[in-house]
Specification:
By secondary structure, the chain is α+β, with helices and mostly antiparallel strands. The chain has five helices and seven strands, in the order E-H-H-E-E-E-E-E-H-E-H-H. The relative contact order is 0.13.
Length: 127
């Protein structure tokens, strides 16, 4: 096996939970090699460097081995090298810590209404 489809490989090494999500990401232009957006059927080979935008985070991945079937996590991690810059991980950590914090609501106000919930979600997205 010298080449494999990019959507299939991203699913096989567990970057995406399902192959359809990997395909969708490719179609939306979230998977790039250099400045070129990759289509789902684009064939990749070892030593290619991919940039994958997932949940507003940019992951840089160097392909080491090709897989066409999904494997366990330890084997999948040995098939690529993570070249993601430290700033992206800091961004993820800040997002994760902010997500963990619970909201504070004044005593006696009761549960938030549907409108309140939407406003809270909109605010949390931009923080």
């Amino acid at each position: 096996m010298k080449k494999v489809r990019v959507d299939k490989w991203l699913w096989a090494v567990r970057i995406f939970k399902s192959r359809s999500l990997a395909t969708k990401a490719c179609k939306e232009g979230a998977v790039k090699m250099g400045d070129d957006k990759l289509k789902p059927a684009h064939l990749i080979e070892p030593d290619n460097i991919l940039t994958v935008k997932k949940n507003d985070f940019n992951l840089r991945i160097k392909v080491l081995k090709l897989l066409s079937k999904r494997v366990g996590a330890p084997i999948a991690q040995s098939c690529y090298t993570d070249l993601t810059p430290e700033e992206e991980y800091n961004k993820y950590e800040a997002w994760y810590n902010r997500k963990k914090q619970s909201e504070f609501r004044e005593k006696g106000l009761g549960r938030p209404t549907k409108k309140d919930r939407r406003e809270i979600d909109k605010l949390k997205k931009w923080l």
